[in-house]
Amino acid sequence: MSRLEGAWVRTWSVLQRLLHWCLVAGIVVAWCFGEERQTLHNGAGYLALAAVAVRVLLGLAGGGNAGFASFVRAPAAVLRYAGEVLRGRERRYLGHNPLGGWMVVALLACTLVACLTGWLYTLDAFWGMAWLDLLHRGAAWAVLGLACIHVSAVLWMSWRHRENLAASMVTGRKRATVERRGP
C-alpha cells in the first residue's frame, strides 16, 4: 500500500451530516423498538420523516454535493459505472458515485413510504388496514436491505480507494486525491 496524497477538502456540509445521522438514528431506533415500544417507534419514525423531508428539499435546492443534480446520473451512466466497478477500473468521486447517488434516492424513497404509511396507520380512517400494514412492513424491510447494501458498499469502496468513507460522514472531509487499489 502506498501513502495517501493530497489535501483535505470539505465534502459534506454540517447539515448533510446531521441529516444523515438523524436518519440513521431514526431508522435504527424504529427497528430496535418496533411495536413493543410504540411511542418510541413513532417518535423515531417522525425523526426519520423530518430528516427525509429536509434532505429532499436540500437535494432540490442545494448546491455542491448536496444537490441531486450533482449525483443523480442517467441510467446509462450508472450502468457504465457499474461495469467499471466490476472491472476494477471505477473512478473515485468526492461526492456520491453514480451507484451511490441512486442508493440515496432509493433509501429516501423507501424511508418516506415507511414513514408515511406508519403515520397513516395512526389515523382512525386507516387503522387496521391490512394493505397499509403490508406496505409499511415491506418498505421497512426494503430500507433494511438497502441499508445493508449501502454499508457494504461503503466498506468496499473505502477499501478499494483507501479512504475511510464513514469517517468523512463524521468530519465532512475527504482527501482531494487518493490512490486506489489496482486490479
Estimate the strand proportion.
Answer: 5-15%
Spatial extent as radius of gyration: 18 Å
Number of helices: 6
- What's the shape? elongated
Instruction: Domain count, please report it.
Output: 1
User: Could you tell me how far the N terminus lies from the C terminus, measured between alpha carbons in angstroms?
Assistant: 13 Å
CATH superfamily: Transmembrane di-heme cytochromes, Chain C
Structural class: mainly alpha
Task: List low-confidence stretches.
Answer: none
* CATH hierarchy: architecture: Up-down Bundle
What does this structure look like?
The chain has six helices and two strands. A two-stranded antiparallel sheet has the order 1-2. It has helices at 14-33, 38-61, 75-87, 98-121, 130-161, 165-171; strands at residues 5-10, 173-177. By secondary structure, the chain is mostly helical. The mean pLDDT is 90. α2 (38-61) packs across α4 (98-121) and α4 packs antiparallel against α5. It has one domain: Transmembrane di-heme cytochromes, Chain C (Fumarate Reductase Cytochrome B subunit, Up-down Bundle), CATH 1.20.950.
Keywords, please?
two-stranded antiparallel ribbon; elongated; Fumarate Reductase Cytochrome B subunit; mainly alpha; single chain; 6 helices; 183 residues
Topology:
Elements: E1 5-10, H1 14-33, H2 38-61, H3 75-87, H4 98-121, H5 130-161, H6 165-171, E2 173-177
Antiparallel strand pairs: 1-2
Helix pairs in contact: 1-2, 2-4, 4-5
